[in-house]
Amino acid sequence: MKRELAAYFTSPIAYIVTALFLIFSGLVFFSTFFIVKRAELRNFFEMLPIFLSFFIPALTMRVFSDEKRTGTMETLVTLPVKVTDIVAGKYLASFVSGISLLVPTLFYAVTCAVFGSPDAGPVIGGYLGAVFLIAAFSAIGVFASSVTKNQIIAFFLAFALCIVLTMISSFSIFLPGPVVKLVSFISASGHFLSVSRGIVDSRDVLYFVSLTALFIAMTVRTIRNERKN
Fold this sequence. Notes:
Layout lengths: L1 H8 L2 H24 L6 H19 L4 H6 L2 H6 L4 H20 L3 H10 L4 H27 L4 H17 L9 H10 L1 H9 L5 H27 L1
Helix pairs in contact: 1-6, 2-3, 3-8, 3-9, 6-8, 6-12, 8-9, 8-11, 8-12, 11-12
């Protein structure tokens, strides 16, 4: 994890991705703040799942694919360490990198507190939900990176999975009743918005924990198969 974080924060990728994330999220927040003249984070949190669907895959696309491209993957899987340790280190580094995107946006919350009177519950819930989203999307991104040596393919695979989980609830109005419940359950944005209201439901926590564990387990299986080969 330390090696991955050192490589990430000494490369320009970290600062380019962070700058782009802050530009897009800042446009959403400050358009509400200056144009609508409301000191609130509602629009920011509503758009956050879409932003993270794009920027988290951009952070994770090189995690394993770069190892495969440069030929260091063979060395990595033959080291006397468990595959679970390798995946855990890569995942934790990706998760911390994702959280680093979120930290500068606390300035938005401070701005709201100074110029308005926001309800603390939804603000705390929004950031807690964002942490859950980053945890799940990081696991998806690490998995996508483990199945290919092409970073672009890894990015688009992770982005496709994340954006489907984010946007799927938008199409529920076109689906029959019995399917709507299933769609609502697998919708990442639906669970995120539930948490962002300031009410932490065990079903929402279970969803994010299960999604994260599923893709970490799939990554472990992928790397384990490479070790055997």
